[in-house]
Design goal:
Largest sheet: none
């Protein structure tokens, strides 16, 4: 099972994603989407069109990625909280 700390470490930063996009064209690699990254490189950023569109989409890509991770963190924390409550109830009996 993945820990909360491992999940927190996999959160991404929009500014880093933009830097990867601007200097290396590697925003998809940063997000862990290697298939799209290879397609992006082999089409030269969709001959510039895809590159231009990504300039406006990177922020939402990062938010979507982080949202999935934050949901997992919340689930783990909720389960841990439930276990802690059950322990407290068991100890009070």
């Amino acid at each position: 099972m993945t820990s909360i700390y491992e999940l927190q470490a996999s959160l991404k930063s929009s500014s880093t994603a933009y830097l990867m996009w601007f200097f290396l064209g590697a925003q998809y690699a940063y997000m862990g989407r290697w298939g799209l990254q290879l397609l992006y490189w082999f089409t030269f950023g969709g001959l510039g069109i895809w590159m231009f569109v990504d300039m406006f989409c990177i922020g939402s890509m990062v938010r979507r990625h982080n949202s999935k991770i934050l949901d997992k963190i919340e689930d783990i924390a909720e389960k841990q909280h439930q276990k802690d409550l059950e322990k407290i109830v068991a100890m009070s009996k």
